[in-house]
């Protein structure tokens, strides 16, 4: 049960000489009934200007946490402090942020992820989407490679009643309906190798039904307008039983 949220900053921070407890106060019997994924301790206070953001970015990528307020968020940075997700540049896509990447200084090797905000969000994995991050046997070739994404938070439903038609570079013409929800993907630190994009079947079938002669596809565009000239690829999603998946 969430009682309240309090942002702890400089006014609340002070040195103390007594023991500290994780999940409870040493003077009271009340305890914390839940899971704590990770505890990081330091012998000095980290500054809010840069160090704290590096720590929060590490945790955000590792656990699929949207930093700051969902919808406005904040910048994500690597261990050097270089931005890997710019909340201002990516305005409009600051919902349900997640990412994969490698950062040797922070010992981060996140090979697959989805936003912790919802089980129906998209999952992207390096080479595959395994049962767990550890079970994913693929590796990033370069240190500080990241792939971070966020959505516009609209429903996975059909956008409009008029189909679009586009001719791809291969000469193939196809007709499609686009979804209201769109994702922006930002790649830094070099070219991330082949990934698998996976979406729960239930999240599409219930909101964006299709006929027997249609199929769900991944539409890749260089802009959020998804105009004909901007579309790079249209790839069918394979039915894996519980998910729709494709590589990219």
Helix content: under 10%
Largest sheet: 5 strands, antiparallel
Low-confidence stretches: none
Q: H/E order of the elements? A: HEEEEEEEEEEEHEEEE
N-to-C CA distance: 40 Å
Instruction: State the strand order across the main sheet.
Output: 5-6-11-15-14
Secondary structural class: mainly beta
Oligomer: single chain
Which percent range describes the beta-strand content?
Answer: 25-35%
* Individual helix count: 2
Shape: elongated
What is the number of beta strands?
Answer: 15
| Global Rg | 21 Å
- What is the overall pLDDT average? 90
Sum up the structure in keywords.
single chain; 248 residues; mainly beta; five-stranded antiparallel beta sheet; four-stranded antiparallel beta sheet
Please provide a written account of the structure.
- The chain has 248 residues and is mostly beta strands.
- The chain is 7% helix and 27% strand.
- The chain is built from two helices and 15 strands.
- Strands 5-6-11-15-14 form a five-stranded antiparallel sheet.
- β14 and β15 form a beta hairpin.
Give the secondary structure arrangement, pairings included.
Layout: H1 51-63, E1 76-77, E2 83-85, E3 95-103, E4 108-110, E5 112-113, E6 123-126, E7 146-151, E8 164-167, E9 173-176, E10 183-188, E11 195-200, H2 201-205, E12 217-221, E13 231-236, E14 238-239, E15 243-247
Antiparallel strand pairs: 1-2, 3-4, 3-7, 5-6, 6-11, 7-10, 8-9, 11-15, 12-13, 14-15
């Amino acid at each position: 049960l969430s009682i309240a949220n309090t942002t702890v900053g400089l006014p609340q921070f002070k040195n103390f000489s007594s023991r500290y407890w994780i999940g409870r106060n040493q003077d009271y019997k009340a305890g914390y009934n839940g899971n704590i994924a990770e505890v990081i301790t330091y012998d000095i206070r980290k500054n809010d200007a840069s160090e704290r953001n590096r720590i929060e970015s590490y945790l955000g990528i590792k656990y699929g946490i949207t930093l700051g307020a969902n919808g406005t968020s904040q910048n994500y940075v690597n261990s050097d402090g270089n931005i890997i997700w710019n909340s201002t540049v990516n305005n409009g896509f600051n919902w349900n942020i997640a990412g994969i990447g490698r950062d040797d200084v922070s010992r981060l090797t996140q090979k697959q992820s989805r936003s912790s905000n919802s089980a129906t969000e998209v999952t992207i994995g390096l080479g595959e989407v395994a049962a767990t991050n550890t079970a994913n046997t693929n590796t990033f070739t370069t240190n500080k490679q990241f792939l971070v994404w966020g959505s516009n938070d609209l429903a996975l439903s059909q956008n409009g009643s008029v189909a679009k038609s586009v001719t791809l570079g291969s000469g193939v013409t196809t007709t499609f309906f686009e979804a209201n929800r769109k994702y922006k993907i930002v790649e830094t630190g070099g070219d991330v190798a082949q990934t698998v994009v996976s979406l729960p079947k239930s999240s599409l079938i219930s909101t964006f039904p299709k006929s027997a002669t249609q199929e769900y596809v991944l539409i890749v565009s260089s802009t959020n307008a998804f105009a004909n000239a901007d579309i790079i690829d249209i790839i069918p999603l394979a039915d894996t039983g519980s998910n729709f998946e494709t590589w990219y």
